[in-house]
Amino acid sequence: MLTRRTFIEGTAATAAISMLGRQTRADDPISVGAIYDLSGPLQGFGDNQWRCAKLAIDQVNEAGGLLGRQLEVKLYDAQSDMQFYNQFANQLALRDRVAVVQGGLTSSSREVIRPILHRLDTLYVYNTNYEGGVCDRNFFATGATPGIYVDLLLQAAADRWGKRVYVLAADYNYGQISAQWIRKAAQSLGGEVVGEEFFPLDVNQFGATISRIQAAEPDVVLNVFVGPAHEAFYGQWASAGMNQRIPMMSTTFGGTSEIVRMPPEVVNGIMVIGSYYESLDNAFNQAWLPEFRRRYGTDYGYLTDVPIKDWYGWTLWAEAVRQAGTTERDAVIEALETGISVDGPGGPVSVDPATHHCFMDTHLAEARDGEFRILQRYQGVAPTNPAAQCDLQARPDTNTMFTPDI
Questions:
Q1: In sequence order, which residues have a C-beta less than 8 Å from that of residue 3 and are 6 or more positions away?
Q2: DSSP SS3 for 323
Q3: I want to staple 270 with a disulfide (CB 3.0 to 4.6 A). Which of 176, 367, 374, 400 is the partner?
Q4: Dihedral through CA 168, CA 173, CA 176, CA 181, nearest 10?
């Protein structure tokens, strides 16, 4: 006879059996989450980001996995759409129950993902160069921020050409804050910004801008362009003969393989700075790049530091899991905060415990006949942290995005 007591006892027993059935076994795979732009306007970045991420994940699995378990990737294509970033961040944390999420390209995608994962206690690693300022214990960044490379670029410009700068930038956080860094760096060198223009991501006509640059007669133009529409500038600049008259520098050129997609006569001489170029001759890259090509062929364009940072992000997280002996979030964060370091194709990268950003080697380079020629290497450049705004060791409950004091 089914009584209330036997019903409750039976239900409890069934629930207990069900819970036992869901317990993680020692050989169960570790679920990890990835969100990349594998279609849409930003696919040119996303494809190589995922290739580099997958290489790191595959290398972990081929070496026996982590803690004796294989990594199982829950991969989602955000289609360059913020709505999907929102949907997939929630899905990875709530349904897929992943140990970590990596991915996102633009600052807007990051600021969709980050608050969701912070609230849901799911570790987030962001692997793209950005404007800086995020201070969040649940967040780690392997990408460079403008304070790392703007000062170095403008010093190189001052040494070679002069200190009067014309700035062209994408019209959103990254471009706007990068422009502030450029103004500060120019002033500190005794120079000046003689013109400054911002462009929505869909703008592809620059004739009027080129005329204004001609009139301003700067020593150098520094661009912070983002996305396929802005690429049109380079052809229009060369067609006007300006690439023979005024030097061009960029914080973003090369990120979507422009170096091999555009004619040398259009892009030769553009000066860039970043943590990785295929032409680096260190021993790690001499082994790593052939392995990348063995897996993916050679029809991928050209790798610079944006996709490479996804390899670093996954490799750093894996090393932290090994050191922690668990995938549990707090333990992994504590391992990362020891200043954990990994070597890689761009040189060693190590975590700064105070900011959760990274120290990294940085390379000044010049576009030349379908390749980036390395001009100078800067070792172990520290992440930007104006006025020590972010100190997660002293204030671990911080969860904000500081506006850099520049």
A1: none
A2: helix
A3: 367
A4: -110
- Spatial separation of the C-alpha atoms in residues 364 and 374, rounded to whole Å: 6
Would you mind telling me the total number of residues written for the chain in this entry?
406
Tokens of 377: 């290497």
Find out if CATH 3.30.1300.10 is the number for domain 146-274. no
Those residues whose C-beta lies under 8 Å from the C-beta of residue 223, and which sit 6 or more positions away, are 167, 168, 169, 230, 233, 248, 249, 250, 251, 252, 253
pLDDT of residue 231: 94
Condensed to tens digits (0 to 9), the pLDDT of residues 124-177 reads: 999 999 889 999 999 999 999 887 889 999 999 999 999 999 999 999 888 998
Task: Band the pLDDT of 387: cuts 50, 70, 90.
Answer: confident
Tokens 């009067």 belong to residue: 164
Q: Are 159 and 191 in contact (CB under 8 A)?
A: no
CA 380 to chain centre: 17
The chain-wide mean pLDDT, for the chain, equals 92
DSSP letter assigned to residue 231: G
> At a CB cut-off of 8 Å and minimum separation 6, what does 306 contact?
45, 48, 49, 105, 127, 128, 129, 143, 255
What would the two tokens of residue 112 be? 């969709």
Going from N- to C-terminal start, the domains of the chain cover: 30-144+283-292+304-360, 146-274
Burial class of residue 3 (count of CB atoms within 10 Å of its CB; 0-12, 13-18, 19+): exposed
Q: Which residues, in sequence order, are CB contacts of 148 under 8 Å at separation 6+?
A: 360, 362, 381, 382, 383, 384
**Long-range CB pairs of 66-71, under 8 A, 24+ apart, other chains included:** 66/30, 66/318, 66/321, 66/322, 66/327, 67/30, 67/321, 67/322, 67/325, 67/326, 67/327, 68/26, 68/27, 69/26, 69/27, 69/28, 69/29, 69/30, 70/29, 70/30, 71/29, 71/30, 71/32, 71/318
Place of tokens 């129950």: 97
Residue for token pair 């050209």? 302
For the cut 90, the answer to whether the pLDDT of residue 12 exceeds it is no
Topology annotation, domain 30-144+283-292+304-360: Rossmann fold (3.40.50)
pLDDT, mean of residues 346-361: 97
